[in-house]
Amino acid sequence: MTIIASRPKLSFMSHLTKEQRYTIARMLQAGCAKKDICTAIGKDKSVLSRELKRNSSKRGCYSAESAQTYANERKERFRKKRKFTETVKKHVVKYLSEEQWSPEQIVGDAKKRDIEMVSCQRIYQFIREDKRDGGSLWKHCRHQLKHRKRPVGGKKIIIPDKVSIDERPDVINKKQRFGDWEIDTIVGPENKGAILTAIERKTGFLIMKKLSEGKNAKNLAKTLYYMLLPYKKWVHSITSDNGTEFYEHKWIAEKLNTKYYFAHPYASWERGLNEYTNGLIRQYVPKKENFKKHSESDIEFFQKKINRRPRKLLNFETPKKRFFSLIESCI
């Protein structure tokens, strides 16, 4: 049998068609070299090797029809939702704890050997669940889960009815109006403890308060309401980032009779005044310092010190003086 090959570009993709399998079978029967078979079907030698290993009979014979049947059955089996069975669990634990394999390596090896397996994400979720229960599987991960910023597989919380900063009018963007606020939270080490900050955009005036329940959304909403209530008449808008602690934004807007906007994710410059002021606060409450060290009166004292600082943007007037002078002029 003479094979005319135009040497097409070889593919590493493992999915073979029925026609390619018939070509493999005919060329094997004709005694063709595997290199020539790969050229004819346009696949890398590793693909052919895997095909023969997976779909040949126990005696080593290769039939195109049988191979296609095996492939279809395998495809159907893996299409079904895979469950984290006890067998899968034992397999994952074994290779994590004994071999220190990554979830990706475990899944890849199982797929190659046609072993039932769940996804990488599900394995990471299992590792985190084990860690929460006091287990030590996470210690066998190369990065010990430190490369993940949030729990894998956890339910993603979507804040409903958000109004984008894109819809914020120019009177706010250009700081032409008194009474537009930016809010944020400062968190302590290991996310323990939090401080809520609110800054008036035109004057840079700061109000801050410790959050008794950390970044709990409902507690934060109530705390912000009582912080701004004395100035409700001068709260025309509030802008925050997309943190889930601001989930109760609609309640806040309704109680203060104001507009609420969300900045774009990872765009801290859109709340530049807030970020700058948080930096000033960090002079008194360093990042690695436990918030329990500071009482409510301490936080109030820091607030007063910052509001007494002259600002270049205010022609070296203090935020406190400019804020209250504008209130008096509006009364």
Fold and architecture overview:
The chain is an alpha/beta fold. It has three domains: 18-79; 86-140; 165-330, Ribonuclease H-like superfamily/Ribonuclease H (Nucleotidyltransferase, domain 5). Helix content is 42%, strand content 9%. It has 13 helices and five strands. The chain has a five-stranded mixed β-sheet, with helices on both faces. α1 (18-29) runs antiparallel to α2 (34-41) and α6 (103-112) crosses α7 (120-132). The protein is elongated, with a radius of gyration of 31 Å. The N and C termini lie far apart (100 Å). Mean pLDDT is 85; it is low at 1-8 and 149-154.
Compact overview of the structure:
The chain is α/β, with parallel strands linked by helices.
Give the low-pLDDT segments. Answer: 1-8, 149-154
Main beta sheet:
5 strands, mixed
Distance between the termini: 100 Å
Mean pLDDT: 85
* CATH-level-2 architecture of the largest domain: 2-Layer Sandwich
- Radius of gyration over alpha carbons? 31 Å
SS-based class: alpha/beta
CATH level 4 superfamily of the largest domain: Ribonuclease H-like superfamily/Ribonuclease H
Biggest sheet, spatial arrangement of strands: 3-2-1-4-5
Which band does the percent of strand residues land in? 5-15%
Q: What is the fold-level CATH name, i.e. the topology of the largest domain?
A: Nucleotidyltransferase, domain 5
Q: Give the tally of structural domains.
A: 3
Percentage of residues assigned to helices? 40-55%
Q: How many distinct helices?
A: 13
What is the tally of beta strands?
Answer: 5
